Every structure is written in structure tokens, then in C-alpha cells.
Amino acid sequence: xxxxxxTNICIFFFRDKFNIGSILxxxxxxxxxxxxxxxxxxxxxxxxxxxxxxxxxxxxxxxLANIEIENWVER
Length: 75
Hints:
There is one protein chain. The chain is of the alpha/beta class and 75 residues long. The chain has 3 helices and 4 strands; from the N terminus they run βααβαββ. It has a two-stranded parallel ribbon. A two-stranded parallel sheet has the order 3-4. The longest helix has 14 residues, at 36-49. The radius of gyration is 13 Å and the shape is globular. The termini are far apart.
């Protein structure tokens, strides 16, 4: 089964709440995805809060002002 995660589930995962990390591991990260809307919400949150956005899609965000971007994926 494939799963579409909404923003609050992603935030719970990042904050290590409600055992979401274990649930995701159990379901398989390859079976989980997020929508463009969730991605846009996370971008907006990063800009508003002055956070660094960590993404493998740096080219999609380079045009945005007022945001730091990092890619932690080593290929």
C-alpha cells in the first residue's frame, strides 16, 4: 500500500511525536510520499521561521529569496 503524508504527519515525524517514525519505518519509507501542497507548506514554514530547508531538489528552490537550502543526499 502507498501512503500520502500530509503536513501535520510530517511535522509530527520531525518533532518525534506520536510514534510516527516507527510507523513510517514499519510501513516502509519507499511507500510514503508527500504532495506538492505539503512541500509548499514546508517551504513557506521554513521561510517564515528562518529555517534551512533540507531537500534533494535544490534546483526547485534556488529561485526563492530569503531561504537557506542544503542537500544532505550524497550520491
